[in-house]
Each structure stands twice: as C-alpha cells, then as structure tokens.
Design goal:
Strand order of the largest sheet: 1-2
Number of strands: 2
Structural class: mainly alpha
Radius of gyration: 32 Å
Largest sheet: 2 strands, antiparallel
Shape: globular
Distance between the termini: 88 Å
C-alpha cells in the first residue's frame, strides 16, 4: 500500500479526517525550506580523513576549504553550473505545461509543509498546533513524505493526535520501504525498546558506550560527525536556540518553580511591569520572543515591540538586538544592512558587546560597508574582552583562517575554548573538527566525539524535550514516556534520567507487561555513565534495596563511593557513612562513618539536621557500648568527688537537686 493511501486509512481509524483544501485560511508567512535530506554515512575509512578547514562561520553556511569566495553582502559567491550541450530535448508540445503543473503542485505541497511546521515550531497553543497538523495532513494527502513522517511521529507520541502506536508503526513501515531515514529510525527505536535516530546519532551513542555494538571510538566519530554537521549547518543558517531540558528528578511535583520554563503567571507579571516601563523586563521579553527560549513562543513582532520600547528607554542591549533583527530580516522587519548598522553603532557607542560584534560582522562580510578585516578584528576583540561569546568565536575563526591576522591554530583553539565554555554550538563543532583531525592539537578521538555529541544535542530534534515536559505536566504520561524514551535511545542523559523517573514513579499503559524497575535500572545506569550524580545514587539505592536486581550491598557501596568522590554528592556521602556504620557491603568502621557524616554536612547545608541526628545516634551507641564493657564499681571507686568538686561537693549536689525539684513543681502546676 502506498504511504499516502495508508495515511488516509490511519487517519480514518484514528477519527481524524483530513480537512478540505478549500477551507484553508493560513496567515503564516511562507518560508523556503533550506534544509536538505541527510546523505547516507560514508564508509568509515573515507570519513576519518578530515579536512581541517571545515569550520563553521557565524551566519554563513560555508565550509572553509582554503579562502571562501565572499560576495559584497558576505554570502559565498555563486558557482555557475554548466549544462551539457548534448541534453536531449523532448519534442512533445505539452512537456512545458506538464512541468509547470508539476512545479505548482510541488510548491503547494512545500508551502503547506513549511507553514505547518512553522506553527508547530513556534507555538505551544493547542488550537494553533492542531491547525498546524491540519496543514501537514493536507501536504501528506498530496504525497509529501516529510509531512507523513511528522504525522507518524505525532501518532506515536500523541502530539495533538490520538496516540496510536500500532497505526504509527504501520505508517513507519510503509515509509521505511520507500527509503525514509526518519521512519527507519523510528522503527529501530520501537523494536529496540519493545514498543510495538534522527540520522546517525543513536548508532554513534551505541558505538561510544558499547551498547549492543562493539565499543569503537572511531566508528562513533563517523556517526556523530555526520549528525553534528547537520546541526552546525542549521545553526550557521538560522542561528542557535538552546533546548529546554527539564529534569523531572529535580522538579517533580514543583513545576511552577522550574527555572528552565517560564510559567504563564510569571510571564504575565513580566508583561505587566514591562508595560509600566521596566527596562529589564522589556529586554528580557524581547529576547525570549526573538529566540523562543524558556518555552515562550518565538514571535518576531512581539520581540520588536518590546525591544523598541526598551531602546526608547535607553537600553544598549535592546539596540544591539534590534540591529541583529534588521541584519537578518524576518516577518516583523525587512532585511536592511543600513538600518542594522545604525542600531549597531548606537549600541557600540555605549560599549555594548552585541553592537560591537554586529559591527565586526558587518566589516568581516561587507554588510553595508566595505570589507575591512582589521576593523572587524578590532570590534571582535572589544566584544571578547567583555566576555561576549560571539566575539570570542569570531576571533577564533579569524585566527584559524588568517583573516586580518597571521594564521595561528593555538590562538584559534584558545578562543574556541572560551566560547565553548558558554555552550556556543559552532565553537564546539570547530573544536571537534580540530581534535578529530589533529589540527593545532594532539588528535583525540574521545574528545572529538564528546564535542560532536554536545553539538548533536542542540539539534532541532531536542524540541521533543519541551513537548514531553508539557505532556507530563498535563498528566499525559504515555505521551511523555514515549518521547523521553525516544530521546533516551539517542543518548540524551537528561532524557535517560527522566525515562527512569517515569518508569519508577508513574504508571503507563505501555509498561504494564515489563519489569519497570529493571528497565529503569538500565536508564539510570546509562545516565550515571554520563556523569549524572543523582543517577549514580539511584543505582546504589536499587542495589541496596534489590529493585530490578538482587540485593548487593557491595555494589551499592561502590556506586555511593563513586558519587561521593567524583561528584561530591552529600547524599552519597551520607549513604556511605550509614553503610560503614552498620558494616553493609564493607567492614564496620565507626570512625569512617563519622568522617563521611561530617563530610556530608560540610558539602551541603541541607544535610545538617540528618547528620546531627545520625551523629547523636552514633554517639549514643558508642556510650552504650562503653558502658556495657566497663566495670562501673571500679570506676566509682576511682572517682574522688572531693578532688573533682573540691570540698563543697555536697552543697553543689543539694543545689542541683533543689533545681530539679523546682522544675518538677513548676511543671506540675503549669
């Protein structure tokens, strides 16, 4: 059965009927889909010979192989493609008409898909998301494979469509037979987890950690590099938006205080004080709407509104962000290098790093001014000296390529390292390229893989984190569980710990036939292997209490010790002290127990009261033990009260007894 016909059948059985094409009324601005399908992974030997110049440059999707040919506006010069003179021309008169009709149909499908995905990407409103899926259903009905993939994932995860795992699997089967990479990834996920990646990241994660595959760093490097290149290309073209990864383990039952997601009441409060003229709130809301961070919808018109108000109030940051909006262009403002330069200069005059970086980019790429590498370098240095990561990154690019300065890989690595500390995706990618090829540093496969993995975890597929979080918050556990499980299989540590948390504390219709503790143990173990201390403590708990495995005090003690020594976890120190106190999994040692109790209190103030009670109990036990093994009559004979209390010990004793009598009398009459 053809995929689009199967889709109609799936929609019928899920009670979703594709709406009529004539009823479409979408005011969403059309955008060109610049992303291409990923190419198949090349052979391992071919990929390991890296081009060291393949670094990503900010806002320009170009690989620096030698010197890039730059046009006046900063974009790579177009390369003319020659057409063979021996091309065969078909004599049919209606060929051009057929091509025109086909072109119109393809454009219609592309527009429907782009508008639908734009709504899904920017909006968390349920009604708007349903409209987005209606557009995707229309595109899928016309034969769009990409739209069918999105709908199949929506059926799998229950995102605005009734969750139907069987229907999703059938649609994935049909798409996979036609060569869909995403469908093949989904089927691999479903078979691997017993439920029924994106690109090459899951296989890279499995090669890196030896999960169902031989542990092989170079093979992991090939797969991670392919996925990372896709992410870096997208960031260079569209800019970076940091994913919101909410840990259920840290915020369970207290979602309103989660710092990574801005709740509606807090957003409305900031709106209120922003309207009253609070500059900080105006800039904050403008920036959030500009990037779509903290769960706030990306809305360029609202971003322009708040930033304009802040700029009128004298905010240098707002001026810099307005310059960025005009430099890139969007649905709220037209692209204008001239206006962008005005805002950048106004911000730079106030020594603002956003404005300084914007002027540097203008001189680097010739946007509204003549290309001047020395001026670009000067502005980037000023921005970098203020700790602005984009300025640091651009200095790294200039020293790597030798633009305006002598080429120096060591200085380039220094600036890339500085930018990567703040999580700059392209800086991380460039470092990975250099470590993977040994350019300016000693080649390190493991370091390169870790850097590539960090880049991969900033890809568009991380939007699933936010969708899973809202599903969990709305008590749609089945949908949240599947989405976290899907991300966990791709190697996301946060998703692995969230999956384990759901398995341990929640009940879903999908895990009724499995040992939840045993499956949770697997994901706690994977999260712990990536350095998450809470997951390491949970492993110790599972072995201590025998959840999903046999009781094993020695293994539990090992996990607690690792968390205590490597992650400085106060909880792990407390647990380890308890095991030393009772000799569980190790020899009983009260001195070590007291030492770890004290370390726990020194590490975290939250441990003060538990540690005080534990030490009080430990002291009481020591006192009882000392009494049991002491001859009290001999001790009494050796006590000389005259020497201890001098000659008036009897008067002291009378005073103590009198005080006790007074206390008892007061208590009785009170």
């Amino acid at each position: 059965m053809a995929p689009h016909k199967l889709l109609l059948f799936v929609l019928l059985i899920t009670t979703i009927t594709p709406p009529s094409l004539a009823n479409t009324d979408s005011n969403v601005t059309q955008e060109q889909n610049n992303q291409t399908e990923k190419e198949d992974v090349e052979s391992e030997d071919d990929n390991l010979s890296l081009e060291p110049e393949e670094l990503k440059r900010y806002q320009v999707n170009v690989e620096l192989k030698g010197e890039p040919a730059l046009a006046q506006n900063g974009q790579p010069a177009a390369i003319a493609e020659e057409v063979g003179n021996n091309a065969e021309i078909l004599p049919e008169a209606n060929t051009a008409q057929q091509e025109t009709v086909k072109s119109k149909e393809e454009q219609e499908i592309e527009d429907l898909y782009n508008n639908g995905t734009k709504i899904l990407k920017r909006s968390r409103d349920k009604n708007l998301r349903k409209e987005g899926y209606k557009l995707l259903v229309k595109a899928a009905d016309l034969g769009s494979t990409k739209a069918m993939e999105r709908i199949a994932y929506a059926l799998l995860f229950g995102d605005q469509l009734p969750q139907n795992v069987t229907a999703a699997r059938d649609l994935f089967d049909a798409l996979a037979e036609n060569g869909s990479h995403k469908a093949q990834t989904a089927l691999g996920f479903m078979y691997a987890t017993g439920i029924g990646g994106s690109y090459n990241q899951p296989k890279g994660y499995r090669y890196l950690n030896g999960i169902n595959l031989p542990q092989h760093c170079e093979a992991a490097l090939v797969h991670y590099r392919t996925a990372a290149k896709y992410v870096a290309d997208n960031v260079a073209l569209n800019g970076e938006t940091l994913p919101e990864k909410v840990r259920l383990t840290e915020r369970a039952g207290n979602f309103s205080s989660n710092g990574q997601i801005m709740e509606l009441d807090l957003y409305q409060y900031f709106q209120l004080i922003a309207e009253k003229g609070d500059l900080q709130s105006q800039v904050g809301l403008g920036q959030l709407h500009l990037t779509g961070g903290k769960g706030i919808e990306q809305d360029f018109k609202k971003a322009f509104y708040y930033l304009s108000k802040a700029a009128e109030g004298g905010s240098a940051n707002a001026l810099g962000f307005l310059g960025k909006m005009y430099s890139e262009g969007n649905e709220a403002v037209p692209q204008s290098n001239e206006i962008a330069l005005i805002y950048y200069r106004m911000a730079a005059e106030r020594d603002n790093p956003i404005g300084l970086t914007g002027l540097g980019l203008a001189y680097l790429y010739g946007k509204g001014v003549s290309v001047d590498y020395e001026e670009a370098l000067r502005y980037f240095k000023k921005a970098a000296d203020k700790g602005w990561v984009d300025g640091q990154f651009q200095l790294g690019v200039m020293h790597y390529t030798g633009l305006g300065v002598k080429r120096d890989y060591k200085i380039a690595i220094m600036y890339f390292h500085q930018a990567s500390q703040a999580g700059h995706a392209l800086a991380l990618y460039n470092l990975a390229q250099m470590y993977g090829s040994g350019t300016g540093v000693v080649r390190s496969c493991l370091t390169a893989v870790e850097l590539y993995k960090n880049v991969c975890e900033r890809g568009q597929w991380t939007e699933r984190f936010l969708s899973a979080y809202f599903a969990y918050k709305e008590n749609d556990i089945d949908s949240a569980f599947l989405q976290y499980l899907f991300l966990a299989e791709q190697g996301y540590e946060t998703a692995q710990s969230n999956t384990a948390h759901v398995l341990e504390y929640e009940q879903t219709s999908l895990n009724l036939k499995i040992d939840c503790y045993h499956m949770a143990l697997i994901y706690w173990n994977r999260a712990a292997a990536q350095g998450y201390s809470y997951a390491r403590i949970k492993l110790g708990d599972y072995y201590f209490y025998g959840r999903g495995t046999k009781v094993d005090y020695e293994t539990a003690a090992i996990h607690y010790r690792l968390a205590a020594e490597q992650q400085r976890s106060a909880q792990a120190m407390f647990n380890l002290a308890y095991m030393y106190e009772y000799g569980l999994g190790t020899e009983q040692d009260l001195h070590l127990a007291r030492r770890f109790y004290n370390l726990a209190a020194e590490t975290s103030t939250d441990a003060y009261i538990p540690v005080f009670l534990a030490l009080f109990k430990l002291g009481a036990i020591n006192f009882i033990h000392s009494v049991q093994y002491t001859n009290l009559s001999e001790v009494w004979k050796q006590i000389h009260l005259d020497r201890l209390l001098r000659r008036h010990w009897d008067l002291c004793l009378i005073m103590i007894l009198s005080l006790l009598l007074a206390v008892l009398t007061a208590y009785r009459h009170g």
